[in-house]
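question for whoever is on the cluster today: can someone run the full assembly for these? two chains, 826 residues total. i dont have access anymore since they changed the login thing
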Amino acid sequence: MKPNTRTFRNLLYFLLTCLSLSALLLAGCASDQKCRFIPNKTIYFPPAPDEPHIQYLTGINSTEDIGEAKKQSNISLVVTGKERPEILKKLGKAYGITAHKGKLYLAEGMSKEISIVDPVKGTIETPEGTKNAKGALGYPVHTAVDDDGNLYVADTARREIVVYDAKGNFKTTFGKGIDPKSKITDISIYNGKLYALDLGTSTVRVLNLKTGEQLAEFGSSDKPNQSLRVPGNFTMDSKGNLYITNIGNNMVIKLDQDGNFLGSFGGLGDQFGQFVKPKGIALNKDKQIFVVDGGTNVVQLFDDQFHLLTYFGWPGLPFGSLNGPAGVAVSSDNIEYFQKYAAPGFKLETLIYVVSQFGQEFCIPRISVYGLGEIEKK
Amino acid sequence: MNRVVSLLCLAGCLIVLYHGQASAQTCSITSCHRSIVAPVNLHVPVKEKDCVACHKRINQQHPLLGRKSWELTAKVPVLCSQCHFTFGKKKVMHSPVKDGDCLACHQKHGASGRFLLDVGEDQTGLCLGCHDSGPFKQQFMHGPVAVGACTKCHDPHEAEEKALLEGPVRNVCLKCHMDFAKLLKEAPVVHPPVKDGPCTSCHNPHGSPYNKLLKKRMPDLCVECHTTIGKKLAGVKVPHKPIQQEGSCGSCHSAHYSQNKRLLPLEEMATCLNCHDKDNMGKPPLRNIKKELAGKKYLHGPIEKGECKACHDPHGSDNFRMLRGSYPADIYTPYKDGAYGICLTCHEKNLLRFTETTIYTKFRNGKRNLHYVHVVNSRKGRSCRVCHQPHAANGVKLINKENMKFGEWDLPINFTINASGGRCAPGCHQAFSYDREKPLVYKTDPSL
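^ ran it for u. tokens below:
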């Protein structure tokens, strides 16, 4: 080999190496331009000049968006050759969300996972039990957690409720074979009983929390407008009453824990108080009812007499818009942590977590975090 | 010579002195002006026979036919002010004083009463000479007015307050009503107009056709401010009778102050039982509630707190027994939604909504709602009081331990309760038991 050729080849290798490193560094810079979820201006609902009641605070897509400020640089990635999983854990496409003792439980159907988000610690974990054969999930859509920390997951692919203990180990399953049409889409725990909303049979099934034995079933009556019609989600108040969204008639129906009809509101439409595709529903301590409308991409807020109070999350906002919203959870935990995102003087009382199924390419976060509160009086 | 001059001077002086005295004495002693000194109370110059203090001679000849030979040294009131204080330093002046017409009220030389007034203690005659007598001839008269002591409250010349009052209305009143002032100061609850306003907000200070010198009869007077109550009273179907009777609002409320809330003379329940403690009140007679409560083992929650008004509206209502919500008058009544509004205001609202429940009542056989069975009957629903006493009972849940009045029959209830249910053997139907955990199967249908 001629020396000139060798020198040329060495030079070529050197240039290629430099180009590769530059590309990696540039990629690192490019990722710096990832979606920002913290707005650079205050997003209030309703907007000024009305008195604000709700503020969009931030969004959560991965561990980068929660906990203390932390980020792994791309140089570090190049050097170590691997991502630090506790930093870069990302959320997948999800539907149901549950808030329990400061943590958020996200049912990620597509990725067949449950993500347990701790916003304060900045971690996203997965129950260990989902990694073995018995506990592996098919299409989790909703979760519930009991006082002992046991996790219950409604899985529409497995057509049963999968139970994990407080450490995340697989424990048992409920509801298999109750009805061939059965398709549990939402679950909730009240007074030692597991209430399961069965979209397949348009009923509510009441199960023994320990054994899974079905204790009661209700939801249909001789009055069609008091019966469940393709129910999607539900929540329960402190008295055990159920508030159930029905995609079939676009109504929210309130039943007591025996299934007696207590009231309803809504109806098909995109006007105030109406729904196109009612999905997730949640209550806060003041019995205010948050109803997600997947059709109009808003969350409507009602008082306990079913009067519309306000709504938020509509499309087209610089921050705070929803896209294909599904699950909603409200909680007064972690107020202190999220208060830093609130505008000066806006005191948070309740946090509202809304899951968007779509729109990540438009920087819509998987979980949008809003705060219900008020401007502090001076 | 000197002696002669001295004697002449002395004689001159004696003549002058004699002449001066003689002229005053002459005025009153002679038959011409004797009446001047006739009154008991004489004007001081008159008493001192000092006519020239006010009069001066303008003609040596006296009397002089057709002309005056004496005239006043100045015109009234300048004449008076030569000795007396002048007025006009305060905001309000009595009209004659303002006009300088002292003699409108006072006699110039002497009078039968003090202050040269021709009145005694009763000043009515003098004052009503000008003032309209209407307000002073009412059925009920203020004490000072009745005895004509006008100047007890009014200054006859001038004052800083309206109506020539000797001070602010409240002070003038409390100057005499000292016992009232003392209790008012000590009372924890005071009617706002009494606390801050003039007494004349409610009272006519002279006289009134209404007792207590009220400006209007009660409740018309009270509802002028208490408009909400007024509207209620105007259209109420079941009134509280005392309001329409003589005592009216004052039957239950102290108008001025009280030791108790809402100006009640006693604690709330004690106020009610002050009347509702009789067997013969009303036609047909109302129940003797005091007797009903005495010695009972269980009291209805509001009664336990002493709150009759939790269920009854003391000003009347459109409901049976002045209840604050609906409640049927008859013990059997076709059931309609909302028929027991008063009970379900506090008790479970869904008690009578569903045939089956596990949460709204413990009176159930399994899930079967036995309250629903008894009450929700479109033909012959049972009123709550068939089984429960509204005020007090010796039975748990206020269930009649004693018999229920059913026409001439004292109908027994015979209810017993256990951990998971109970048993009832009333005069209504055969004995039935019920159990929430292990529902009983009845041989005969106990549907009522």
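summary bc i know u wont read the tokens: Chain B touches chain A through nine residues (CB under 8 Å). Confidence is low (pLDDT under 50) at residues 12-22 of chain B.
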